[in-house]
Design goal:
Blueprint lengths: L6 E5 L7 H9 L12 E6 L12 E3 L2 E12 L2 H19 L5 H15 L4 E12 L4 E4 L4 H15 L4 E3 L6 H11 L6 E10 L7 E5 L6 H8 L3 E9 L3 E6 L4 E6 L1 H11 L3 H26 L10
Antiparallel strand pairs: 1-6, 1-7, 2-4, 3-4, 4-5, 5-6, 8-9, 8-10, 10-11, 11-12
Length: 306
């Protein structure tokens, strides 16, 4: 159940996330298989459990968990292009004429339609947690595109979803650079052994460091020549480790064993109880961690009038 990545979104208006109402909204667009001529489908699935009776909204205290599934047919462009080329050569040789752009596109469309029913199917799931009291929607992804697919589909079924990505008052790269220079992040945060440094000049290079002492002379030299930190591995208290980038995306999020053991002890023997205990503990941790992170990065930037 533990999220591996995190994109944070701020609700800009109060939204009444009534579980029953949300359940009905998600049920209006369930995940389904691709039809023979469909490239992709997208819809909501139960975040835990299988079968028609599994709820599309998992409720745990004040927190809600939802999940969406994308199904797509994988049709390699190289396969399509080879088939198009073969067909065009056949026409030009048999009919002794040139095949031009419009006909090429028509041939390509026909080949795609012929190949689609035989294409491989790829399925992917994405989870989102909703914390109404905190005014946050948290998406388990490092891809803004995948997160927006989920949020736009949620907006579609709900009729409205006033959210925007959380931003902070100071550019994250400036804060991360200062932390590595001084080796003194704010309380409860500690620097680990990985970072990415980027030259801010046009066509500047990028240096990626892993398993490095970031206080070393080599790293400090890069910073003195004007490079800035665009990704930094950090730890928070003794509960989380993660990589933070200059767009405030949290990647490779790891919950330390202490938290996982606590969830196991609280969850009981049933899988559903373990799932709920893990989700509840994860969200309680985020309730402490995210405000501390935003504050450490200079405070959340809330536009006037919001």
């Amino acid at each position: 159940m533990w999220f591996k990545n995190l994109l944070t979104y701020r609700l800009t208006q109060d939204v009444a996330f009534e579980p029953e109402t949300l359940e009905a909204a998600l049920a209006s667009k369930p995940a389904r298989p691709c039809a023979s001529q469909e490239l992709t489908t997208y819809g909501f699935v139960a975040p835990f459990g299988k079968g028609e009776d599994a709820p599309l909204v998992h409720v745990s205290g004040e927190f809600l968990l939802i999940a969406a599934r994308k199904e797509e047919r994988i049709l390699p462009s190289s396969v399509v292009n080879d088939a198009v080329k073969e067909k065009i050569e056949e026409i030009e040789n048999e009919q002794m004429r040139k095949v031009y752009k419009k006909e090429r596109e028509q041939i390509k469309d026909e080949i795609i339609q012929a190949f689609l029913p035989r294409a491989f199917i790829r399925r992917s799931m994405i989870f989102a947690a909703i914390a109404p009291r905190l005014g946050l929607v948290l998406v388990n992804s490092a891809s803004a595109k995948r997160a927006e697919d989920l949020l736009s589909t949620l907006r579609e079924v709900m009729g409205s979803l006033p959210v925007r990505p959380v931003t902070v008052k100071i550019a994250p790269s400036a804060t991360l650079t200062e932390w590595v220079k001084s080796q003194q992040p704010v309380a409860d945060f500690h620097i680990q052994d990985e970072c990415e440094l980027r030259d801010t000049h046009e066509d500047g290079g990028t240096v990626r460091c892993k398993r490095q002492d970031l206080a070393s002379e080599e790293i400090q030299l890069h910073l003195s020549t004007g490079k800035v930190v665009t990704q930094l591995a950090l730890g928070w208290q003794d509960k989380l480790s993660f990589v933070l980038d200059d767009k405030t995306v949290i990647k490779r999020l790891k919950f330390e064993e202490l938290l996982q053991e606590e969830a196991e002890q609280n969850g009981g023997e049933e899988a559903a109880q373990q799932f709920d205990a893990s989700f509840q503990l994860m969200m309680m941790t985020f309730t402490e961690f995210l405000p501390a992170l935003f504050e450490a990065l200079g405070g959340e930037d809330i536009p006037q009038g919001v």
